[in-house]
Write a structure and sequence with these properties.
Elements (H helix, E strand, L loop, with lengths): L3 E9 L5 H12 L3 H7 L11 H14 L1 E8 L7 H42 L30 H22 L10
Antiparallel strand pairs: 1-2
Helix pairs in contact: 1-2, 4-5
Length: 184
């Protein structure tokens, strides 16, 4: 693996004012002046990259009159427990948001299907439109037709899928090492 480097602020060249350097660098990078000003307080301006690219970034800074140094970055940065907890919480909220939005979409699809089915069964045939006047009304027949029971297979399969997803989500929180291959 190649080692990554980050360009860090080291100082200003002679006869260069900080405000001028900030303005010039902000224009060259097309970034906000506040982000560039944060660079002067040892906050990173560029993402960690290979040494060759980091040297190009340092050369760009030197063209504006800013001295910089390259700082090696470990490929596997240590994550503090509070960062890990906040990342885990963020992943949980993202997963719950995804499940909620999926459930809403499923519900909307079911509503659309329910609206389509009765509309297609209640439309009269164009051939039978005027024949009702010539037919004799038979009062002996039952006036209501029995309601056909629809298969709820689609609904049951969707509910089963949601339950399976919730079980998988619960297992991923209970045993995070079990699903560690998904984090890569």
């Amino acid at each position: 693996m190649t080692e990554n480097f980050r360009v860090m602020y080291a100082g200003l060249a002679q006869d260069i004012e900080r405000s001028n350097a900030i303005k010039q660098l902000a224009v060259k990078l097309k970034a906000s002046e506040s982000k560039v000003a944060a660079f002067f307080e040892n906050k990173p301006l560029f993402a960690p990259c290979e040494k060759e690219k980091a040297l190009k970034q340092a050369k760009l800074l030197a063209s504006v009159g800013i001295k910089s140094k390259l700082q090696p970055i470990n490929n596997a940065p240590a994550v503090s427990s509070s960062d890990a907890t906040s990342q885990r919480d963020e992943r949980i909220f993202n997963a719950l948001d995804y499940i909620t939005s999926s459930l809403i979409r499923i519900e909307e699809k079911l509503d659309d299907l329910e609206q389509r089915l009765p509309a297609s069964t209640q439309q009269p045939d164009p051939d039978e439109g005027d024949e009702w006047q010539t037919d004799d009304l038979l009062l002996d027949e039952e006036l209501t037709t029995p309601i056909k029971k629809r298969s709820n297979m689609l609904l049951y399969s969707l509910i089963a899928m949601v339950v399976v997803l919730l079980v998988v989500l619960g297992l991923s929180f209970a045993f995070p090492d079990l699903f560690s291959f998904m984090d890569n």
